[in-house]
Amino acid sequence: MPGPIAGSRVTALLAALVLVAACSPTAPSSPTAATKNEAKPTEAPKPAASPATVSSPGTAGSPAQASPSPSPSPSASPAATLSGALPVGAVESVSVAHAPSVLFAPLYVAIEKGYFREQGIAPQLETVQAGQDAMALAANNQLDVVVAGFGVATFNAVERGLDLRIVSSMGRQPQQGFPTALMVRQDLLADGQVRDVADLKGRKVALAGGIGATGSYWMAAKLRTAGLTLKDIEVVNLAFPDQVQAFKQGAIDAGLPPAPFTAQILRDGSADYFGGQLSPGASAVGTVYGPSLLKDRAETGRRFMTALVRAARDLQDGRVRSDQHLEIFSKYTNIPVDTLRAMDPYDFDPNLTPDVPTLTDMQQVFIAEGILRLPNPLPPERWADTSFVMHATSQLR
Protein backbone atom coordinates (compact mmCIF):
# COMPACT_ATOMS: atom_id res chain seq x y z
CA MET A 1 0.00 0.00 0.00
CA PRO A 2 1.24 3.56 -0.63
CA GLY A 3 2.85 5.54 2.12
CA PRO A 4 1.41 8.71 3.68
CA ILE A 5 0.77 11.68 1.42
CA ALA A 6 3.60 14.17 1.44
CA GLY A 7 2.95 17.19 3.60
CA SER A 8 3.21 19.52 0.64
CA ARG A 9 0.05 18.03 -0.85
CA VAL A 10 -2.21 18.07 2.20
CA THR A 11 -3.58 21.53 1.49
CA ALA A 12 -4.41 20.65 -2.14
CA LEU A 13 -6.08 17.43 -1.09
CA LEU A 14 -8.22 19.23 1.50
CA ALA A 15 -9.34 21.67 -1.18
CA ALA A 16 -10.17 18.77 -3.45
CA LEU A 17 -12.24 17.15 -0.72
CA VAL A 18 -14.29 20.32 -0.33
CA LEU A 19 -15.06 20.28 -4.06
CA VAL A 20 -16.01 16.60 -3.97
CA ALA A 21 -18.43 17.28 -1.14
CA ALA A 22 -19.99 20.09 -3.13
CA CYS A 23 -20.33 18.15 -6.40
CA SER A 24 -21.13 14.57 -5.43
CA PRO A 25 -24.37 13.04 -4.13
CA THR A 26 -22.32 11.65 -1.24
CA ALA A 27 -19.18 12.95 0.38
CA PRO A 28 -16.51 10.33 -0.36
CA SER A 29 -12.93 10.67 0.74
CA SER A 30 -10.28 11.25 -1.90
CA PRO A 31 -7.59 8.89 -3.19
CA THR A 32 -3.91 9.51 -2.91
CA ALA A 33 -2.51 10.98 -6.11
CA ALA A 34 0.75 9.84 -7.67
CA THR A 35 3.71 12.13 -8.07
CA LYS A 36 3.60 13.52 -11.61
CA ASN A 37 6.13 14.36 -14.31
CA GLU A 38 8.69 11.99 -12.85
CA ALA A 39 9.14 8.45 -14.14
CA LYS A 40 9.37 5.80 -11.42
CA PRO A 41 10.57 2.21 -11.54
CA THR A 42 7.55 -0.05 -11.94
CA GLU A 43 6.75 -2.08 -8.85
CA ALA A 44 5.82 -5.74 -8.82
CA PRO A 45 2.11 -6.33 -9.51
CA LYS A 46 -0.22 -6.11 -6.55
CA PRO A 47 -3.72 -7.57 -6.83
CA ALA A 48 -6.63 -5.21 -7.38
CA ALA A 49 -9.70 -5.41 -5.21
CA SER A 50 -11.30 -8.84 -5.35
CA PRO A 51 -14.42 -9.35 -7.48
CA ALA A 52 -16.46 -9.26 -4.30
CA THR A 53 -15.30 -5.74 -3.48
CA VAL A 54 -14.64 -4.06 -6.80
CA SER A 55 -17.07 -1.26 -7.53
CA SER A 56 -18.20 -0.48 -11.04
CA PRO A 57 -17.46 3.07 -12.22
CA GLY A 58 -20.05 5.55 -11.15
CA THR A 59 -20.77 3.68 -7.94
CA ALA A 60 -20.82 5.92 -4.88
CA GLY A 61 -18.54 4.88 -2.05
CA SER A 62 -15.34 5.69 -0.24
CA PRO A 63 -12.23 5.38 -2.37
CA ALA A 64 -9.79 2.62 -1.62
CA GLN A 65 -6.26 3.66 -0.79
CA ALA A 66 -4.21 4.17 -3.90
CA SER A 67 -2.47 1.06 -5.23
CA PRO A 68 0.62 0.97 -7.44
CA SER A 69 0.26 0.04 -11.07
CA PRO A 70 0.79 -3.60 -12.01
CA SER A 71 3.93 -3.87 -14.09
CA PRO A 72 3.53 -4.26 -17.85
CA SER A 73 4.22 -7.65 -19.30
CA PRO A 74 7.96 -8.08 -20.00
CA SER A 75 7.03 -9.66 -23.32
CA ALA A 76 5.45 -6.41 -24.58
CA SER A 77 8.03 -5.05 -27.01
CA PRO A 78 7.47 -1.59 -28.50
CA ALA A 79 7.02 -1.34 -32.24
CA ALA A 80 7.93 1.68 -34.32
CA THR A 81 7.20 4.94 -32.51
CA LEU A 82 4.10 6.71 -33.80
CA SER A 83 4.22 10.27 -35.08
CA GLY A 84 4.33 12.84 -32.29
CA ALA A 85 5.91 10.52 -29.70
CA LEU A 86 8.87 11.53 -27.56
CA PRO A 87 12.38 10.45 -28.59
CA VAL A 88 13.40 6.93 -27.57
CA GLY A 89 14.30 6.82 -23.89
CA ALA A 90 12.28 9.91 -22.88
CA VAL A 91 9.48 8.88 -20.50
CA GLU A 92 6.85 11.10 -18.88
CA SER A 93 4.75 10.04 -15.91
CA VAL A 94 0.95 10.36 -16.16
CA SER A 95 -1.20 9.60 -13.09
CA VAL A 96 -4.45 7.74 -13.83
CA ALA A 97 -7.28 6.98 -11.38
CA HIS A 98 -9.33 3.88 -12.13
CA ALA A 99 -11.81 1.58 -10.42
CA PRO A 100 -10.70 -1.83 -11.72
CA SER A 101 -13.24 -2.92 -14.34
CA VAL A 102 -13.32 -4.54 -17.77
CA LEU A 103 -15.14 -1.37 -18.86
CA PHE A 104 -11.66 0.19 -19.02
CA ALA A 105 -10.02 -2.61 -21.01
CA PRO A 106 -8.20 -0.28 -23.47
CA LEU A 107 -6.25 1.25 -20.58
CA TYR A 108 -4.92 -2.12 -19.46
CA VAL A 109 -4.20 -3.33 -22.99
CA ALA A 110 -2.27 -0.14 -23.81
CA ILE A 111 -0.11 -0.65 -20.72
CA GLU A 112 0.58 -4.35 -21.28
CA LYS A 113 1.28 -4.11 -25.00
CA GLY A 114 3.71 -1.23 -24.56
CA TYR A 115 1.61 1.34 -26.45
CA PHE A 116 2.07 3.98 -23.75
CA ARG A 117 5.78 3.28 -23.60
CA GLU A 118 6.03 3.83 -27.35
CA GLN A 119 4.45 7.23 -26.78
CA GLY A 120 6.98 8.10 -24.06
CA ILE A 121 4.42 7.73 -21.27
CA ALA A 122 4.65 5.81 -18.00
CA PRO A 123 1.12 5.54 -16.52
CA GLN A 124 0.94 5.52 -12.73
CA LEU A 125 -2.34 3.85 -11.78
CA GLU A 126 -4.25 4.93 -8.67
CA THR A 127 -6.94 2.44 -7.62
CA VAL A 128 -10.14 3.96 -6.24
CA GLN A 129 -13.58 2.59 -5.40
CA ALA A 130 -15.28 4.97 -7.82
CA GLY A 131 -13.81 7.22 -10.47
CA GLN A 132 -16.13 10.06 -9.42
CA ASP A 133 -14.16 10.25 -6.16
CA ALA A 134 -11.09 11.40 -8.09
CA MET A 135 -12.68 14.10 -10.28
CA ALA A 136 -11.84 17.00 -7.98
CA LEU A 137 -8.25 15.79 -7.67
CA ALA A 138 -7.92 15.88 -11.45
CA ALA A 139 -9.45 19.35 -11.60
CA ASN A 140 -6.81 20.51 -9.09
CA ASN A 141 -3.87 18.89 -10.92
CA GLN A 142 -3.48 16.19 -8.27
CA LEU A 143 -4.23 13.59 -10.96
CA ASP A 144 -3.89 13.80 -14.72
CA VAL A 145 -6.52 11.32 -15.91
CA VAL A 146 -9.64 9.66 -14.50
CA VAL A 147 -11.48 6.76 -16.12
CA ALA A 148 -14.97 6.65 -14.68
CA GLY A 149 -18.69 6.27 -15.04
CA PHE A 150 -20.63 9.50 -15.31
CA GLY A 151 -23.62 10.79 -13.38
CA VAL A 152 -25.07 13.81 -11.63
CA ALA A 153 -21.76 14.55 -9.89
CA THR A 154 -19.97 14.86 -13.25
CA PHE A 155 -22.20 17.62 -14.55
CA ASN A 156 -22.50 19.36 -11.19
CA ALA A 157 -18.71 19.51 -11.10
CA VAL A 158 -18.52 21.12 -14.54
CA GLU A 159 -21.34 23.55 -13.74
CA ARG A 160 -19.56 24.64 -10.56
CA GLY A 161 -16.33 25.42 -12.38
CA LEU A 162 -14.14 22.33 -12.12
CA ASP A 163 -11.81 22.31 -15.12
CA LEU A 164 -12.62 18.86 -16.52
CA ARG A 165 -13.49 17.45 -19.94
CA ILE A 166 -14.68 14.04 -21.08
CA VAL A 167 -12.21 13.18 -23.83
CA SER A 168 -13.18 9.62 -24.75
CA SER A 169 -15.69 6.87 -24.22
CA MET A 170 -14.79 3.47 -22.80
CA GLY A 171 -17.02 0.36 -22.60
CA ARG A 172 -20.31 0.43 -24.53
CA GLN A 173 -23.42 -1.63 -23.90
CA PRO A 174 -23.10 -4.49 -26.40
CA GLN A 175 -25.42 -5.40 -29.25
CA GLN A 176 -25.66 -8.88 -27.76
CA GLY A 177 -25.24 -10.22 -24.24
CA PHE A 178 -25.64 -8.90 -20.72
CA PRO A 179 -22.40 -7.65 -19.13
CA THR A 180 -24.71 -5.42 -17.05
CA ALA A 181 -28.33 -6.47 -16.70
CA LEU A 182 -31.65 -5.66 -15.11
CA MET A 183 -32.52 -8.70 -12.99
CA VAL A 184 -35.77 -9.55 -11.21
CA ARG A 185 -36.32 -12.01 -8.37
CA GLN A 186 -37.16 -15.47 -9.70
CA ASP A 187 -40.25 -16.02 -7.53
CA LEU A 188 -41.80 -12.78 -8.83
CA LEU A 189 -41.26 -13.93 -12.40
CA ALA A 190 -42.48 -17.48 -11.75
CA ASP A 191 -45.83 -16.50 -10.26
CA GLY A 192 -46.46 -13.72 -12.77
CA GLN A 193 -46.23 -10.79 -10.36
CA VAL A 194 -43.72 -9.17 -12.71
CA ARG A 195 -44.37 -9.72 -16.42
CA ASP A 196 -43.15 -6.47 -17.94
CA VAL A 197 -41.31 -3.31 -16.93
CA ALA A 198 -44.53 -1.58 -15.86
CA ASP A 199 -44.90 -4.19 -13.10
CA LEU A 200 -41.81 -2.79 -11.38
CA LYS A 201 -43.87 0.18 -10.15
CA GLY A 202 -43.58 0.40 -6.39
CA ARG A 203 -40.93 -2.33 -6.26
CA LYS A 204 -37.59 -2.23 -4.40
CA VAL A 205 -34.80 -1.90 -6.97
CA ALA A 206 -31.13 -2.04 -5.95
CA LEU A 207 -28.89 0.50 -7.68
CA ALA A 208 -25.27 0.78 -6.59
CA GLY A 209 -24.56 4.43 -5.84
CA GLY A 210 -28.26 5.26 -5.60
CA ILE A 211 -30.07 7.95 -7.56
CA GLY A 212 -27.69 10.08 -9.60
CA ALA A 213 -25.09 7.37 -10.25
CA THR A 214 -24.50 5.79 -13.65
CA GLY A 215 -26.71 2.78 -12.92
CA SER A 216 -29.68 4.99 -12.10
CA TYR A 217 -29.50 6.43 -15.61
CA TRP A 218 -29.66 2.96 -17.18
CA MET A 219 -32.60 2.14 -14.89
CA ALA A 220 -34.39 5.36 -15.81
CA ALA A 221 -33.89 4.61 -19.50
CA LYS A 222 -35.46 1.18 -19.01
CA LEU A 223 -38.36 2.51 -16.94
CA ARG A 224 -39.34 5.13 -19.50
CA THR A 225 -40.13 2.37 -22.00
CA ALA A 226 -43.11 1.68 -19.72
CA GLY A 227 -43.92 5.33 -19.00
CA LEU A 228 -42.32 5.19 -15.54
CA THR A 229 -39.59 7.22 -13.83
CA LEU A 230 -37.27 6.64 -10.90
CA LYS A 231 -39.95 8.19 -8.69
CA ASP A 232 -42.17 5.18 -9.45
CA ILE A 233 -39.80 2.69 -7.82
CA GLU A 234 -38.16 2.42 -4.40
CA VAL A 235 -34.44 2.82 -5.04
CA VAL A 236 -32.19 0.93 -2.65
CA ASN A 237 -28.53 2.02 -2.64
CA LEU A 238 -26.80 -1.33 -2.46
CA ALA A 239 -23.27 -2.32 -3.53
CA PHE A 240 -23.03 -5.05 -6.16
CA PRO A 241 -21.77 -7.83 -3.84
CA ASP A 242 -24.61 -7.09 -1.42
CA GLN A 243 -27.17 -7.42 -4.19
CA VAL A 244 -26.26 -11.11 -4.54
CA GLN A 245 -27.27 -11.82 -0.94
CA ALA A 246 -30.26 -9.45 -1.04
CA PHE A 247 -31.76 -11.41 -3.93
CA LYS A 248 -31.30 -14.68 -2.02
CA GLN A 249 -32.99 -13.22 1.05
CA GLY A 250 -35.85 -11.63 -0.89
CA ALA A 251 -34.84 -8.20 0.42
CA ILE A 252 -35.03 -6.60 -3.05
CA ASP A 253 -37.31 -7.19 -6.01
CA ALA A 254 -34.92 -6.14 -8.78
CA GLY A 255 -31.39 -4.87 -9.31
CA LEU A 256 -28.91 -3.77 -11.93
CA PRO A 257 -25.66 -5.68 -11.29
CA PRO A 258 -22.75 -6.21 -13.69
CA ALA A 259 -20.85 -9.42 -14.36
CA PRO A 260 -19.45 -11.35 -12.57
CA PHE A 261 -22.22 -10.77 -10.03
CA THR A 262 -24.91 -11.53 -12.64
CA ALA A 263 -23.43 -15.01 -13.12
CA GLN A 264 -23.41 -15.66 -9.39
CA ILE A 265 -27.06 -14.59 -9.09
CA LEU A 266 -28.02 -16.87 -11.98
CA ARG A 267 -26.18 -19.79 -10.35
CA ASP A 268 -28.05 -19.14 -7.10
CA GLY A 269 -31.34 -19.24 -8.99
CA SER A 270 -32.53 -16.21 -7.02
CA ALA A 271 -33.13 -13.89 -10.01
CA ASP A 272 -33.07 -13.83 -13.79
CA TYR A 273 -32.47 -11.38 -16.62
CA PHE A 274 -35.45 -9.17 -17.36
CA GLY A 275 -36.53 -6.51 -19.82
CA GLY A 276 -33.92 -7.08 -22.51
CA GLN A 277 -30.62 -5.32 -23.05
CA LEU A 278 -29.61 -1.88 -21.80
CA SER A 279 -29.41 0.66 -24.63
CA PRO A 280 -27.13 -1.29 -27.04
CA GLY A 281 -24.27 0.83 -28.37
CA ALA A 282 -24.53 3.47 -25.62
CA SER A 283 -21.66 4.40 -23.31
CA ALA A 284 -21.92 6.24 -20.00
CA VAL A 285 -18.26 5.74 -19.03
CA GLY A 286 -15.08 7.23 -20.37
CA THR A 287 -11.86 9.15 -19.88
CA VAL A 288 -11.63 12.55 -18.19
CA TYR A 289 -8.68 14.94 -18.42
CA GLY A 290 -7.97 17.67 -15.92
CA PRO A 291 -6.22 20.95 -16.80
CA SER A 292 -2.79 19.30 -16.79
CA LEU A 293 -3.44 17.36 -20.02
CA LEU A 294 -6.06 19.72 -21.40
CA LYS A 295 -3.77 22.75 -21.33
CA ASP A 296 -0.35 22.51 -19.71
CA ARG A 297 0.64 19.22 -21.35
CA ALA A 298 -1.81 18.92 -24.23
CA GLU A 299 0.74 17.12 -26.40
CA THR A 300 1.07 14.49 -23.68
CA GLY A 301 -2.72 14.23 -23.66
CA ARG A 302 -2.69 13.57 -27.41
CA ARG A 303 -0.04 10.88 -27.10
CA PHE A 304 -1.90 9.26 -24.19
CA MET A 305 -5.08 9.11 -26.27
CA THR A 306 -3.24 7.68 -29.27
CA ALA A 307 -2.16 4.72 -27.13
CA LEU A 308 -5.71 4.23 -25.80
CA VAL A 309 -7.34 4.29 -29.23
CA ARG A 310 -4.74 1.90 -30.60
CA ALA A 311 -5.61 -0.52 -27.78
CA ALA A 312 -9.36 -0.12 -28.44
CA ARG A 313 -8.80 -1.17 -32.03
CA ASP A 314 -7.14 -4.36 -30.81
CA LEU A 315 -10.44 -5.25 -29.11
CA GLN A 316 -12.60 -5.24 -32.25
CA ASP A 317 -14.13 -8.19 -34.13
CA GLY A 318 -14.30 -10.51 -31.16
CA ARG A 319 -10.64 -10.10 -30.19
CA VAL A 320 -11.73 -8.74 -26.81
CA ARG A 321 -12.09 -12.41 -25.82
CA SER A 322 -8.65 -13.57 -26.95
CA ASP A 323 -6.60 -15.47 -24.38
CA GLN A 324 -3.99 -12.69 -24.33
CA HIS A 325 -6.57 -10.02 -23.57
CA LEU A 326 -8.36 -12.08 -20.93
CA GLU A 327 -5.04 -12.56 -19.14
CA ILE A 328 -4.51 -8.80 -19.19
CA PHE A 329 -8.01 -8.08 -17.86
CA SER A 330 -7.53 -10.63 -15.09
CA LYS A 331 -4.25 -9.04 -14.04
CA TYR A 332 -5.82 -5.61 -13.53
CA THR A 333 -9.29 -6.57 -12.22
CA ASN A 334 -8.35 -9.70 -10.25
CA ILE A 335 -11.25 -11.57 -11.87
CA PRO A 336 -10.24 -15.15 -12.79
CA VAL A 337 -9.70 -15.81 -16.50
CA ASP A 338 -12.32 -18.58 -16.50
CA THR A 339 -14.90 -16.15 -15.10
CA LEU A 340 -13.96 -13.52 -17.66
CA ARG A 341 -14.25 -16.06 -20.45
CA ALA A 342 -17.83 -16.87 -19.36
CA MET A 343 -18.85 -13.21 -19.13
CA ASP A 344 -20.50 -11.29 -21.94
CA PRO A 345 -17.98 -8.61 -23.03
CA TYR A 346 -18.57 -4.90 -23.47
CA ASP A 347 -18.10 -3.33 -26.88
CA PHE A 348 -15.61 -0.53 -27.57
CA ASP A 349 -15.88 2.15 -30.20
CA PRO A 350 -12.72 1.79 -32.35
CA ASN A 351 -12.07 5.53 -32.03
CA LEU A 352 -13.31 5.84 -28.42
CA THR A 353 -15.42 8.84 -29.44
CA PRO A 354 -17.28 10.36 -26.46
CA ASP A 355 -20.96 9.36 -26.54
CA VAL A 356 -22.35 12.89 -26.54
CA PRO A 357 -25.98 11.88 -27.32
CA THR A 358 -26.13 9.44 -24.39
CA LEU A 359 -24.54 11.89 -21.94
CA THR A 360 -26.88 14.65 -23.09
CA ASP A 361 -29.83 12.31 -22.58
CA MET A 362 -28.47 11.45 -19.13
CA GLN A 363 -28.65 15.11 -18.18
CA GLN A 364 -32.18 15.39 -19.51
CA VAL A 365 -33.26 12.36 -17.49
CA PHE A 366 -31.71 13.63 -14.28
CA ILE A 367 -33.14 17.12 -14.79
CA ALA A 368 -36.60 15.62 -15.28
CA GLU A 369 -36.12 13.53 -12.13
CA GLY A 370 -35.24 16.69 -10.19
CA ILE A 371 -31.79 15.45 -9.15
CA LEU A 372 -29.73 17.57 -11.55
CA ARG A 373 -30.69 21.14 -10.80
CA LEU A 374 -30.09 22.77 -14.16
CA PRO A 375 -32.68 24.46 -16.37
CA ASN A 376 -31.32 22.64 -19.44
CA PRO A 377 -28.54 20.17 -20.24
CA LEU A 378 -25.09 21.72 -20.40
CA PRO A 379 -23.92 22.10 -24.02
CA PRO A 380 -21.27 19.56 -25.08
CA GLU A 381 -18.56 22.20 -25.41
CA ARG A 382 -18.78 22.67 -21.61
CA TRP A 383 -17.95 19.06 -20.77
CA ALA A 384 -16.61 17.20 -23.86
CA ASP A 385 -13.47 17.62 -25.96
CA THR A 386 -13.21 15.38 -29.03
CA SER A 387 -9.94 16.87 -30.29
CA PHE A 388 -7.83 14.21 -28.57
CA VAL A 389 -9.59 11.22 -30.18
CA MET A 390 -9.61 13.05 -33.51
CA HIS A 391 -5.84 13.50 -33.29
CA ALA A 392 -5.38 9.83 -32.32
CA THR A 393 -7.51 8.73 -35.28
CA SER A 394 -5.39 10.81 -37.64
CA GLN A 395 -2.22 9.19 -36.29
CA LEU A 396 -3.52 5.63 -36.58
CA ARG A 397 -4.98 5.65 -40.08
Set out the fold topology.
Layout: H1 10-23, E1 92-98, H2 105-112, H3 115-118, E2 121-127, H4 135-139, E3 145-149, H5 152-159, E4 165-169, E5 171-172, E6 183-185, H6 186-190, E7 204-206, H7 214-223, E8 234-236, H8 240-249, E9 254-255, H9 261-268, E10 271-273, E11 285-289, H10 291-296, H11 298-314, H12 323-333, H13 337-342, E12 347-348, H14 356-369, H15 380-383, H16 387-395
Parallel strand pairs: 1-2, 1-3, 7-8, 7-9
Antiparallel strand pairs: 3-11, 4-11, 5-12, 6-9, 6-10
Helix pairs in contact: 1-5, 2-11, 2-12, 8-9, 11-16
For the biggest β-sheet, the strand order reads: 2-1-3-11-4
Count of separate structural domains? 2
Q: What would the CATH topology of the largest domain be?
A: D-Maltodextrin-Binding Protein, domain 2
Count the beta strands.
Answer: 12
